[in-house]
Every structure is written in C-alpha cells, then in structure tokens.
Specification:
Layout (H helix, E strand, L loop, with lengths): L13 H9 L8 H17 L4 H26 L4 H19 L7 H25 L18 H22 L1
Helix pairs in contact: 3-4, 4-5
C-alpha cells in the first residue's frame, strides 16, 4: 500500500533551491523527491526510529564533503593524517549509536548498561587508535608532534590509574 500524497506549496530562497537541486541523495532526482527523503529522514530521527546502519550511513554522508576535501588536499600536498582517519571512522559510529538507541518501555536499566558498554567500547577504540600513533616518534599526521603533545597528560593519568588499581587488586588476592 502506497502512502497518499498531499501537495504543499512553499516559498524558499533561491540559494536554498539551488542547494536542494545540487544535493545528491540516492534515489532522489527531483526537488520533490529530495524533500520527501529529507522529511522522512528527519521524521525517523525525531521519532528515534533510525536504526544503527541507517544512522551510520546518514552520518557518513554528512561527513563526506569534509572527508573528500581532506582527501583532495592530502593528494595535492602529498600528506596524510592517520589521526583524522581514526576520528572520521569512530565519531560517526559513536554518534550513530547515540542517535539510534531509544529507551525501551521496560528494563531500562539493562538497556542503559548495554548502551553504556557499547559507547565506552567505541570511545576506547578511538582512544586506542590515537594512542597507537604515539608508539613511534613523529606520528603520521600533518603535524608529526600532534599526538606527542597530548601524551604526557595521558601517560600521567595512566600511571595514576595503575597506581590506584594495584593496591585494590592486591587486596582482592
């Protein structure tokens, strides 16, 4: 069964119409098609009914102009940033999880623990990806010292955590 279509009329600025016409959305050719897709996307987002895969695809589409711009600049300048690669990979995954999760009617505590576990896991994967860049001096980034500048605080925190964890583990033994 297809949805009954209703006609609406709207006046929009010329630059918005130009943008809409130039916007590339899979399966949408006309401005009407594009508006329907954008409205459906916003409705799913507002209702919290976006699934993780759809949300991830949408976020990657949103980031695509940035990623393409970075890739073009890297190609022209013959440079590369592993840090930007890691961030561009993990942030959409973290955001997709946040946007696609809706609290259940029942057993909210179990759901919250599961979401927490998934979010912390993804955040730590990003942190680990960035920390791996600090294994050797001069990370493969635009600024070879960008990771090294952050490491002293991370290492200090890691040492404090290790110091406080050791006595707690000894007490359990």
């Amino acid at each position: 069964m297809t949805a009954q279509m209703q006609t609406i009329s709207a006046r929009i600025p010329a630059e918005d119409l130009e943008w809409l016409s130039a916007l590339e959305l899979p399966g949408a050719v006309t401005p009407s098609d594009k508006l329907r897709m954008l409205i459906a996307q916003m409705r799913r987002q507002h209702e919290g009914s976006l699934d993780y895969a759809a949300c991830l695809a949408w976020l990657r589409d949103l980031l695509n102009p940035f990623v393409l711009g970075i890739r073009a600049m890297e190609h022209r300048q013959r440079v590369h940033s592993e840090a930007i690669d890691a961030i561009a990979q993990w942030i959409p995954q973290i955001m997709a999880l946040l946007l696609s999760e809706a609290p259940p009617a029942e057993d909210g505590a179990a759901w919250a623990r599961d979401v927490e576990e998934a979010l912390v896991q993804r955040c730590f994967r990003l942190a680990i990806a960035l920390l791996r860049l600090g294994v050797t001096p001069g990370a493969e980034c635009y600024d070879a010292e960008v990771i090294d500048k952050q490491l002293p605080r991370v290492l200090e925190l890691a040492e404090l955590i290790a110091e406080h964890r050791e006595p707690a583990q000894e007490k359990r033994s």
